Amino acid sequence: MSSPLLHILAAVALVAACSRPGAAADKASTPAATTPAAATTGATTKTTGPMPHDSISDLADRGRIVGDSSAPVWVIVASDFQCPYCKQWEDANYRGVVKDYVKTGRVRLAFLNMPLSMHPNALPASEAAMCAAVQGKFWQMHDTLFASQAQWEVLPDPRAKFDSITKAVGADMPRWRTCMAQHSTLALINADRDRARQAGVNSTPTFFVGNQILAGADANVRGAIDAALKARPK
Fold first, then answer.
1. Which of 62, 73, 103, 112 is most buried, judging by how many CB atoms fall within 10 Å of its CB?
2. Strand 107-113 versus strand 65-66 pairing type
3. What's the predicted TM-score (pTM) here?
4. From CA 129, how far away is CA 176, in angstroms rounded?
5. Which fold would CATH assign to domain 45-229?
6. pLDDT band at residue 17, thresholds of 50, 70 and 90?
7. CA 175/CA 210 separation, integer angstroms
8. How far apart are CA 171 and CA 166, in angstroms?
């Protein structure tokens, strides 16, 4: 099965390091470590080639998409769980977008993993979320990871915290722990990041709304959604 999210991204010219609201990353002053390079963790982080197609990757891919399959507009959020500006957008806007557009059947929302090397716990957070996605628990993990960001972002090893979060959202823990130990979703996360990197993505959060690309925590995502809906054929 092909990835619905990565096929959509392949048709979009991406633009998206964790950037302050209302601004793309300043290339003249941003250190090299803020680019979306492979994070240094215990897992292998070499870039991937083709999108992985196996039962775990397919389940995880589908699990990070929410909304009616017939919704006319896609919104893809390129994000890093440890990025403070990603959290800022999530806190201020995410629930409203879900309530007003996703639950009304007008938008399909998807999460694109962009863990940055400047955030040492971002990659394991993505793995924790995507292993939960295999069980249909991605969005519960997504919400809790952002809500508890201040608790785990400073930990030398966040695995115990992620374990407790996963247990709280009701996942099958032996299955999730096996997924984490085997890094079963890492290829999919790297596939997300590879496609973004290849297209010059340089900041999180970045949003893909219809044929528009917006960057920054204060991006007018609602305005872009409304414009995309209005432009749809009647």
1. 112
2. antiparallel
3. 0.81
4. 10
5. Glutaredoxin (3.40.30)
6. low
7. 36
8. 6
